[in-house]
């Protein structure tokens, strides 16, 4: 019998060869290795799937040079052993897409989805012959692949002990990463190391090769599955490690089902890598909620920073922050300055009980009069932003969920900040028999939980801002009420963290964490002071720049009202800056060093530009070619002043107006730890 061949696909040169297969008497020989190849629409990026000694293996090349070296695929299945040896590849089924869809809110209103797809069945050659389908979508600037467990009698109740997907980074690279499996979830400062010195990392993890190519690994559409960590197993080879479960297995599903997408984003430089992140959205299903006009991007203030300063407390007592009088004052401030909501933390009974066992999500403390507060807010044209802290007791929260959302809906609350403050592995739930079980924030149970919360909240027209969350994987496309989340070190670390967030934090976040989606950083600390007067290593202009650089459709003016009264120029910027965008462009930047971001106001002609730098002073030419050539604009600029910077006077800020012309170059200086923010409005 003359056997298999390698097929030429995607416009690349044939790799084929012809093999002679001898069939022994009484049986059929195992199929020889076969390769299938799928390239991007522009033909530059190609994914190759093959088997090596029967093990499914893939690689990725760009312009003929390797990006991902040969990397194996497989699963450890409970009670069924390893799947990933003696595998043969079926014939590929190919398709393509080229469409543009509209976000109800976002960094860009329109998203282009242009890719080529290949679907291949992978089947064991043995008695059981279990099959898994693999789908690959290749875009011009990255790709995603996922596995589908089809309906088959030999594999129905699927228990996954581990997924064995590998990523072997080709070429010497450095990496920016945070550790996975550690107690503080995702809230770590980023490590910057050679790629071959990474331990076990969360995703997104970003690599920069010595030739300048940028690569980020992440996942998309994480639904009813455990999130992965990336464990370096040798040199620059990484393998997925699923977040643990309270059960012996890490994932349990009934077939048929699909895994999340495993994603590889690729850019010539850091700005191009950020642009590639639309792939994460494109690999999620379209909106399941229908009309979501009730989801309103907005700026908010709230009862929050005072607790981090230790001026107030979340729990009832002499320092209680969430009192009726305090909230009424914040409502007045919000109404006077155009903020849409007032966040109130610590208003409900149960703070702070061990593992959140005493939380009551629809029972207020005696000094918090919700009837009076809600009535006053309505009169002032301001909404209350709700807060549900669980202390990691997700099970209790689920049991009270309908009552909690009913309560908020009754009082006109349309957005809720949720919280899961607990150490990794400290999420509490109960089995049906009442047995307590402990889960990870990014295990399968919590992946289900966050979707369940989003679905139930949508029934009450409530948007969710999750803190201490599972990582973002683009589910805001499917559930547009998942408006933003934490999942990184936020501003509270500047109040009490040891150390506080350094100046390189935001220009690192933009090209790492922000590849996954919006981040509720809670900027705007114009006092530049944390607890007990500790200095925040930022400038005043830098705090304003964060509103443009770090995207969130909910942006907090996090400081105390009395501090904004001392800095009216800074407050003027915060009042004006939009939160919903027509389009976004990263104009320049390097990971951990600096970033310049331009965003066009959704539905408007005005653009907003923010720049941030690390502890080094930089003078940056801003290319204004994104504006119509020759068109005149009025630029209002908030920038670091003379003698400013964290090694000088961090409050030194200049607010000025200039006339500029589209296509010109505008050069601005950022002092150490500083930045700038500016608006560009068509000249009248």
TrEMBL record:
Superkingdom of origin organism: Bacteria
Single GO term (MF): hydrolase activity
Taxonomic lineage of the native organism: Bacteria, Pseudomonadati, Pseudomonadota, Alphaproteobacteria, Sphingomonadales
Signal peptide range in chain numbering: 1-29
Residue stretches making up the Glycosyl-hydrolase 97 N-terminal domain: 40-286
UniProt domain Glycosyl-hydrolase 97 catalytic: residue ranges: 304-488
Keywords: Hydrolase, Signal
Entry keyword Signal: yes
Domain annotation Glycosyl-hydrolase 97 C-terminal oligomerisation: ranges: 580-680
SUPFAM superfamilies linked to this entry: (Trans)glycosidases
Protein name according to UniProt: Glycoside hydrolase family 97 protein
């Amino acid at each position: 019998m003359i056997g298999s061949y390698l097929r030429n696909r995607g416009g690349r040169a044939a790799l084929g060869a012809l093999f002679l297969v001898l069939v022994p008497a009484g049986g059929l020989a195992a199929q020889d290795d076969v390769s299938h190849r799928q390239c991007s629409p522009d033909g530059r990026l190609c994914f190759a799937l093959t088997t090596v000694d029967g093990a499914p293996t893939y690689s990725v090349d760009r312009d003929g040079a390797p990006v991902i070296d040969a990397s194996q695929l497989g699963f450890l299945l409970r009670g069924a052993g390893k799947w990933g040896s003696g595998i043969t590849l079926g014939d590929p089924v190919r398709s393509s897409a080229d469409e543009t869809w509209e976000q109800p809110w976002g960094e860009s209103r329109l998203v282009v989805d242009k890719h080529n797809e290949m679907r291949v069945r992978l089947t064991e050659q043995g008695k059981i012959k279990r099959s898994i389908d693999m789908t690959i979508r290749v875009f011009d600037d990255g790709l995603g692949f996922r596995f589908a467990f089809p309906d088959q009698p030999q594999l129905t109740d699927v228990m996954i002990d581990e997924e064995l997907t590998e990523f072997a980074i080709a070429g010497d690279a450095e990496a920016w990463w945070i550790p996975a499996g550690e107690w503080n979830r995702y809230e770590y400062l980023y490590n910057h190391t050679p790629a071959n010195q990474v331990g076990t990392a969360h995703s997104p993890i970003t690599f920069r090769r010595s030739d300048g190519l940028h690569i980020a690994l992440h996942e998309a559409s994480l639904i009813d599955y455990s999130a992965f960590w990336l464990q370096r197993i040798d040199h620059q080879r990484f393998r997925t490690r699923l977040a643990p479960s309270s059960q012996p297995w890490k994932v349990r599903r009934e077939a048929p089902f699909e895994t999340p997408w495993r994603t590889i984003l690729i850019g010539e430089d850091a700005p191009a890598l950020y642009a590639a992140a639309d792939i994460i959205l494109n690999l999620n299903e379209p909106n399941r909620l229908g009309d979501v006009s009730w989801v309103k991007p907005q700026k908010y203030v709230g009862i929050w920073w005072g607790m981090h300063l230790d001026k107030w407390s979340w729990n009832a007592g002499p320092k209680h922050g969430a009192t009726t009088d305090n909230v009424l004052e914040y409502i007045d401030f919000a109404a006077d300055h155009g903020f849409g909501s007032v966040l109130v933390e610590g208003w409900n009974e149960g703070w702070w009980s061990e593992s959140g066992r005493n939380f009551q999500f629809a029972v207020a403390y005696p000094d918090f009069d919700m009837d009076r507060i809600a009535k006053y807010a309505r009169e002032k044209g301001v909404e209350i932003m709700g807060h549900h802290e669980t202390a990691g007791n997700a099970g209790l929260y689920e049991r009270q969920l309908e009552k909690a959302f009913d309560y908020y809906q009754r009082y006109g609350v349309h957005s809720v900040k949720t919280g899961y403050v607990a150490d990794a592995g400290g999420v509490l739930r109960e089995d049906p028999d009442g047995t307590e079980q402990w889960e990870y924030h990014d295990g399968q149970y919590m992946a289900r939980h966050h979707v369940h919360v989003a679905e139930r909240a949508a029934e009450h027209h409530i948007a969710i801002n999750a803190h201490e969350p599972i990582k973002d994987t683009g589910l805001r496309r499917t559930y547009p009420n998942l408006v933003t989340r934490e999942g990184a070190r936020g501003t509270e670390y500047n109040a009490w963290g040891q150390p506080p967030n350094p100046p390189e934090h935001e220009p690192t976040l933009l090209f790492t964490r922000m590849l996954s989606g919006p981040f509720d950083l809670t900027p705007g600390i114009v006092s530049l002071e944390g607890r007990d007067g500790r200095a925040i290593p930022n400038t005043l202009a830098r705090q304003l720049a964060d509103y443009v650089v770090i995207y969130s459709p909910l942006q907090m003016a996090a400081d105390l009202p009395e501090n904004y009264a001392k800095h009216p120029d800074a407050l003027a910027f915060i009042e004006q800056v939009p939160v919903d965008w027509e389009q976004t462009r990263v104009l320049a930047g390097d990971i951990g060093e600096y970033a310049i971001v331009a965003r066009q106001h959704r539905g408007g002609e005005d653009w907003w530009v923010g720049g941030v730098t690390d502890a080094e002073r930089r003078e940056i030419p801003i290319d204004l070619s994104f504006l119509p050539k020759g068109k005149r604009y009025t630029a209002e600029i908030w920038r670091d002043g003379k003698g400013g910077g964290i090694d000088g006077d961090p409050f030194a800020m200049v607010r000025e107006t200039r006339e500029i012309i589209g296509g010109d170059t505008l050069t601005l200086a950022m002092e150490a730890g500083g930045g700038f923010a500016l608006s560009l409005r068509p000249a009248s």
